[in-house]
Amino acid sequence: MIEIGLLQVLGTIFALFAVSRVVLRYKDKSINAFELIFWSAMWLSVVAVALFPSIFTTLSIFLGIGRGVDTLLYGGMILLFYLLFRLYVRVEEQKKEITALVREIAMEKKKK
Q1: Within a 13 Å sphere around the CA of 21, how many CA atoms are in the beta-carbon half?
Q2: Quick one: how far is CA 89 from the chain centroid?
Q3: Is the pTM of this model over 0.70?
């Protein structure tokens, strides 16, 4: 029989709430289909880990890492660095677009 603790219940409830927010963001077209799938998978993974924490123990043995918690932390850090990189690229693209727009507006004002 599976014994479920308070943290597992709260983690599952929060993750399911987050999935509902992801779906709403997709419906109002704030995110695209890829982002819907990505974030849904992330939050459903949280549910799986909350309900079956031994997943990371098994994965850590397979990867040769000492503890399941270490595997979770390494994976989380890798994911955060990847998301930070994507955010950085997006901000740089926006800076270039804003610069081009400001130049265009300045040229239009100069013509008048």
Answers
A1: 9
A2: 16
A3: no
Amino acid at 77: M
* Rounded distance between C-alpha atoms, residue 52 and residue 80, angstroms: 23
| CA separation for the pair 69, 5 (Å, rounded) | 17
The residue extents of the domains of the chain are 1-52, 69-112
DSSP string, the chain: -----HHHHHHHHHHHHHHHHHHHHHHTTSS-HHHHHHHHHHHHHHHHHHH-THHHHHHHHHHT-S-HHHHHHHHHHHHHHHHHHHHHHHHHHHHHHHHHHHHHHHHHHHH-
Average confidence (pLDDT) per 10 residues, the chain, 112 residues: 77 94 95 94 90 85 87 90 95 97 92 78
